[in-house]
Amino acid sequence: MFQQAIRRSGCAISRRWYSSSNKSSAGIAALEVYFPQKYVEQKELEAFDKVGDGKYTKGLGQTRMAFVDTDREDTASMCMTVFHNLLEKYQIDPKEISRLEVGTETPIDKSKSIKSYLMSVVPSAHTDLEGIDNIHACYGGTAAIFNAMYYLEHQRQINPNETKYAVVVCGDISNYKEAAARPSGGAGVVAMLLSSKDAALRVNLATKASHFEHVYDFFKPDPASPFPVVDGHYSNLCYLRSLDKCYQRFKKQSGKNLQDYDYSMFHSPYNKLVQKSLARLVYNDALDAKGVPSYINSSNVDASKLEQLLSVSQENSYSDKEIEKTFGALSTDVYNSKVEQTHLLSKELGNCYTASLYIGLASLVNNQGSNLNDKDLLMFSYGSGLAASMYEINAKENEGRFSLQNMQKVLNLQNRLQQRTKASVDEYASTVDSNVKRYLENNRQSTTGVDHLQKGTYYLKDIDQMWRRKYERK
């Protein structure tokens, strides 16, 4: 009875926070990204791996892949870089921040959090800064945002006239042992300033829907190795099944469907899976409509064939190639209008794990800026193991440093991507092998040059005999 009372009380509080008379304007007020300065061309990887033209570029939908040399950079250094850059570019006083959350699945220590490394970026006297790491595959960044939002909403109830700020930093280095899986790797991090009110990207959790299971689709059981164990086919199945569950629950909660959103974003291990995800939402809407959804041009649809496809059981639908092909074709225009603008970074960087969904958001803001005003965004987050959630963001243009226009200016992604250094496939393969050897090394000085690093980048100087890491900023 006590637990039931707690649950009822929690729901009532959540509804009150987001009621029409007290609608929250809390959300993301500023965005910054950081990605390594070296990349490899996916087309050249195809030739190197002798897999045939288009295997990675068309088959995965990827263009380039970022990678790091762990002699100089790791997850902690990248998070420090993006956090410090966020503060500087938006002129944020660290003392204004009262919560700092991290999402990652590639921590550098089994006990010491990456958040603790970020404390070296803020003034030493500013120690009343709550928050810690959120670790669960690719879902950790979303968990960090939810935690920060719950905190800000609570603060808004206590101090309605005072604006509170939190920061979420999320990102990873994605590597794979098997050469065949390496093209789905990548690296990148995101930092977001969240405000308790008047944010340009307002996070609405009133209608969010989630799905959690215990599965072994992707996991990292070997503490001596940075590589995951992956059941690729099963992982894709878990992803799409979780998408179905979240979308069906979300539609019941919100009364909306895909048509009601201007843009849709998905966790993106590789772009082809995102295309399948968008098609899956159209398929779900077709099931509800018992035919072609009203937002799809149905002039070329065979009604009898569609009826047959919609009669397939949900379990069998995941392996039905005709369903995948038909709804992939039906959703092409919707993908181009609602999703394509979110994939600048994911195609250029590869899989950034916990940052994946949010580099999609950064890509959209970079591409649209103030044009996002009054637009509604649908967000889907997935982490293997598994954890998944769907929620919405409502964009409202502001003035000044926390405006959509200024976010676009600060991100400046096209120019920054062009400033990167292209690496040969041989250099990439050699770097991956060296990274594995260094994974458990201590008592060493870093010797790789730092000329390729941008100004403001944190880099590893040395690791002492007790595995204590020392960083410097360029």
From TrEMBL:
Q: Please list the residues that bind CoA.
A: S235, K272, K276
Known EC number: 2.3.3.10
SUPFAM superfamilies found in the cross-reference section: Thiolase-like (SSF53901)
Q: Name one GO molecular function term.
A: hydroxymethylglutaryl-CoA synthase activity
**Catalytic activity annotated for this protein?**
acetoacetyl-CoA + acetyl-CoA + H2O = (3S)-3-hydroxy-3-methylglutaryl-CoA + CoA + H(+)
Which CDD domains does the protein's record reference?
init_cond_enzymes
Signal sequence span per UniProt?
A: none
Start and end residues of each Hydroxymethylglutaryl-coenzyme A synthase C-terminal domain: 207-474
Q: Which pathway, metabolic or otherwise, does it act in?
A: Metabolic intermediate biosynthesis; (R)-mevalonate biosynthesis; (R)-mevalonate from acetyl-CoA: step 2/3
User: What is this enzyme's class at the first EC digit?
Assistant: transferase
The answer to whether keyword GTP-binding applies is no
Q: What does this protein do?
A: Catalyzes the condensation of acetyl-CoA with acetoacetyl-CoA to form HMG-CoA.
Q: Where is the Hydroxymethylglutaryl-coenzyme A synthase N-terminal domain?
A: 25-196
**Where are the catalytic residues?**
E105, C138, H267
The family annotation for this protein states:
Belongs to the thiolase-like superfamily. HMG-CoA synthase family.
Give the lineage: Eukaryota, Discoba, Heterolobosea, Tetramitia, Eutetramitia
Biological process according to GO: acetyl-CoA metabolic process; farnesyl diphosphate biosynthetic process, mevalonate pathway; sterol biosynthetic process
Specify whether Transferase is a keyword of the entry: yes
Q: What is this protein called?
A: Hydroxymethylglutaryl-CoA synthase
Alphabetical UniProt keywords: Lipid biosynthesis, Lipid metabolism, Steroid biosynthesis, Steroid metabolism, Sterol biosynthesis, Sterol metabolism, Transferase
